[in-house]
Design a protein that fits this description.
The complex is a heterodimer.
Chain A (H helix, E strand, L loop, with lengths): L20 H11 L10 H14 L11 H10 L7 E2 L5 H20 L8 H13 L12 H17 L3 H7 L31 H9 L3
Helix pairs in contact in A: 2-3, 3-6, 4-5, 4-6, 5-6
Chain B lengths: L16 E3 L7 E3 L9 E6 L5 H10 L4 E4 L7 H4 L17 E3 L36 H5 L9 H14 L26 H13 L4 E2 L37 H7 L3 E3 L3 E7 L4 E8 L2 E12 L2 H11 L21 E4 L2 E5 L14 E3 L1 H4 L9 E5 L4 H12 L4 H7 L5 E9 L7 E8 L5 E6 L4 H20 L3 E6 L3 E5 L25 E3 L14 H20 L4
Parallel strand pairs in B: 3-4, 3-10, 4-7, 5-17, 10-20
Antiparallel strand pairs in B: 1-2, 6-13, 8-9, 9-10, 11-15, 11-19, 12-15, 12-18, 13-14, 14-15, 16-17
Chain lengths: 213, 548
């Protein structure tokens, strides 16, 4: 992963006017999320964890975001979406069905559970799921492509980009309350925003980013 | 310093007081009515329709109790600066979506708060094109409104002044209008890209008229360009119903009941008698001389359908058979691309510039119109657009997301034509209150698809002209919900008359986007509020003549 925003850590702004008390409390809770599954069974959780690692491959530069735990928490806490596509069952049922089906397909096609496959095979399985070419009875008649695009991908991606680690990675300013922003034009940044590493000026950007606050 | 009460668990509007939305832990006095006391108006919903109407009716001296299923927030203490947490502002109860293009609900189109969806709306405050009020007669599609545009022009004026809309001195489209009360907001880089593109294409553009103040107003500070507008404004710069019409309503003597889910309207014979609502652990009943439904285009028909009686077996006010039909969303497609410059589109309100060119130009291959606006989605929303529209995951997704600060986009609010097959019905499955769930059926029509194709092509050219590269389309998004209880001049082809009054039941009214016969190519909130002001004046006039 290239480091577009070297040394930028959005959490350094936690004690600045960009974060009010309510925001601190909410983000603290997200960072303290329990790592053990509460909604999924252990084997389901293992498959989920392996899928998350392919949807969002995380480098070693920062502590990994516990994506499987975040998806588990969403289902455990019954955070609803506000609609149900008639082709897809409710979130919890859809997730369990998808995890079992992917695992069974992996055993059938690759002779091992999904989590034991190498990353090339895992990616191939997920690609086939996305393309709609997994059609065994384990899907219980559901369209695997629809489940992948409407349930699996959004839930995992939403979990990752709700995490400060992802905000730092993409140079997002993060929480902004009560302090907002002043410089609105092209190529302008407030001192409390991430500096982007332009080719040959990475050290300059890192220096600026250490001062963000 | 922070209240320990959770407004989603414990009602705040009770015991003769209401939360003061401008002060942490603050309260203001509120009049209380007894449940057996027959109030003049029970209003279901407190958003752009119900919030506005509650205020105007209370100020006219009527006794008003308004109900909202959602919480009564104090933004300064309850709103985190966080996309995910602020999902609490959305209506997230289950709705079953089908049709050829099943809708995505719950975020940008459904609110659950005192103040309704205006608590998380993007603040875009646009007037209809005058001809849209006679779309059938003047433009050859849809249906005519039973209201003259010149009358609406005066009510638009009232709402723009009430919300201190920030906008340009001269608006480039449509008949003359007064200058906007507050100066326009500074444009961010994302908006400047829209302007560049429009100028290259030879069409007009403007700073978007927005309901967030550009200078101090009472207890509202000027907008500080946090960019979290669609997750709720934590500074109270946004002029939502929650901080404008609702406090005015309470001061004028209205009572607002939060965490109060209305499940059924009581209708013994030819008139309605009040509402059954669930609050604080049990079902209750409020007597009322008039009931106004203002729950937006899904909950409004749902409540009326769920209130069916032997005398009104197809739902209250449904002798036309049109209740729930003609559901109109608006098309919400976009083109995105990359700029060489840093844009940082997360700063400022998300849609600071717009063009209504294709709302006012009729030389095109489809009916209706669209506007398009600059964009500024925050990371969770943006990652879902990238993953959803392009199917990206793995390293490809992470690489794409790293371009976040260089991204720009143009997105339409496009007119969808009324079609009786697009509709809200109720199914056997029950929600947590034991109420039948709504089913929402939607498919784009051929005209809608032509409009979308036209807009994507035009926005693509415009972004290219503004030097954006690596362009791609988001083809599947929708916004806003209207049209399931249309108003009209004839009881055979409409649910309510021009006053929002049921043709069948004279003391039953509807006041929200449900009554729109057509939706136009602009965001509906200003029109809903203008209609609510008009309805209030009509009720006043009818009452004075003894015709209520």
């Amino acid at each position: 992963m290239s480091e577009r925003f070297p040394a930028y850590d959005v959490l350094a702004k936690r004690r600045t006017p960009s974060w009010n008390e309510t925001t601190r409390r909410v983000i603290d809770q997200r960072l303290a999320i329990p790592r053990e599954p509460r909604f999924f069974a252990e084997d389901e959780f293992q498959t989920l964890d392996a899928i998350c690692a392919r949807i969002i491959p995380q480098g070693r530069a920062r502590p990994p975001v516990p994506l499987a735990a975040m998806v588990d928490a969403k289902l455990f806490n019954r955070i609803e979406d506000g609609y149900r596509d008639h082709r897809i069952p409710p979130a919890g049922v859809a997730w369990k069905c998808a995890l079992h089906a992917i695992n069974e397909e992996a055993r059938r096609l690759k002779s091992a559970p999904f989590s034991a496959l190498d990353t090339v095979d895992q990616d191939e399985m997920l690609q086939r799921c996305q393309n709609g070419t997994l059609t065994s009875a384990s899907w219980k008649g559901m369209d695997c492509a629809l489940l992948f695009m409407k349930r699996l991908l959004p839930d995992i991606v939403s979990a990752y980009y709700s995490h400060p680690t992802a905000w730092s990675e993409i140079g997002f300013g993060g929480p902004a309350s009560p302090r907002g922003y002043v410089r609105m034009d092209f190529d302008r940044r407030d001192p409390w925003e991430a500096a982007e590493a332009k080719p040959g000026r990475e050290r300059q950007a890192a220096k600026e980013n250490v001062r963000v606050g | 310093m922070f209240a320990l009460d959770d407004p989603q668990q414990a009602a705040r509007g009770k015991d003769g007081r209401a939360p003061d939305v401008f002060r942490i832990g603050g309260w203001m006095p509120m009049r209380e009515f007894g449940e057996s006391e027959e109030v003049d108006f029970a209003i279901v919903g407190t958003g752009a329709g119900g919030g506005t109407l509650s205020c105007r009716l209370a100020e006219a001296g009527f006794s008003v109790v308004a109900f909202d299923a959602g919480a009564w927030w104090r933004p300064l203490e309850d709103f985190a600066s966080d996309e995910t947490h602020q999902h609490k502002l959305f209506w997230t109860d289950d709705r079953v979506c089908d049709g050829a293009d099943p809708l995505v609900l719950g975020a940008n189109n459904s609110g659950r708060s005192v103040g309704g969806s205006t608590v998380h709306f993007a603040m875009v405050s646009l007037r209809f094109r005058p001809e849209w009020f006679k779309a059938r007669t003047c433009l050859g599609y849809g249906a005519d409104w039973p209201i003259d545009w010149r009358e609406m022009w005066d009510y638009y004026d009232e709402v723009e002044r009430a919300l201190k809309i920030a906008g340009p001195v001269r608006y480039p489209w449509g008949p003359r209008r007064p200058r906007y009360p507050y100066r326009p907001h500074e444009l961010n880089a994302a908006a400047l890209v829209l302007a560049r593109g429009a100028e290259a294409m030879g069409i007009a553009w403007a700073p978007t008229p927005l309901a967030t103040v550009s200078a101090p107003r009472g207890d509202s500070p000027p907008c500080v360009y946090r960019g979290f507008c669609v997750s709720g404004c934590s500074t109270n710069a946004k002029q939502s119903a929650l901080i404008t019409w609702i406090p005015r309503a309470v001061k004028a003597g209205a009572e607002i009941r939060d965490l109060a889910m209305v499940g059924r309207i009581e209708c013994g014979g030819e008139r309605v008698a009040g509402v059954h609502y669930f609050r604080e652990g049990r079902w209750r009943f409020q007597k009322a001389r008039n009931v106004v439904v203002a729950g937006y285009a899904i909950e409004t028909p749902r409540l009326l359908l769920n209130s069916a009686t032997p005398r009104h077996p197809a739902g209250l006010g449904n002798s036309s058979g049109l209740l729930g039909k003609n559901l109109m969303v608006q098309a919400n497609q976009a083109v995105y691309g990359l700029m060489d410059e840093e844009v940082r589109w997360y700063k400022g309100p998300p849609s600071l510039a717009l063009t209504e060119h294709w709302n006012y130009e009729d030389n095109k291959d489809f009916f209706g119109g669209y506007c398009y606006m600059s964009q500024g989605p925050l990371p969770v929303a943006w990652s879902n657009i990238v993953a959803g529209a392009r199917g990206l995951w793995g390293k490809a997704l992470l690489r794409e997301m790293e371009n976040y600060n260089h991204q720009v986009g143009l997105k339409i609010v496009g007119e969808v034509l009324p079609d009786e097959r697009n509709r809200v019905t109720v199914i056997d499955e029950k929600d947590r209150f034991g109420l039948p769930l709504p089913r929402v059926t939607f498919s784009y029509g051929d005209n809608d698809k032509r409009l979308i194709a036209h807009s994507l092509e035009f926005m693509r050219q415009s972004l290219e002209a503004a030097n954006a590269r690596d362009l791609w389309d988001q083809t599947d998004d929708t916004c806003h919900l209207n049209g399931t209880a249309r108003m009209g001049a004839d009881r055979r082809d409409s649910v309510v008359n021009s006053d929002g009054r049921s043709w069948d039941i004279p003391n039953l009214w509807i006041c929200d986007g449900s009554v729109f016969p057509t939706v136009g190519g602009v965001n509906p909130s200003l029109t809903i509020q203008a209609l609510a002001c008009r309805t209030a004046d009509r009720i006043k006039a009818l009452a004075a003549r003894g015709e209520l």
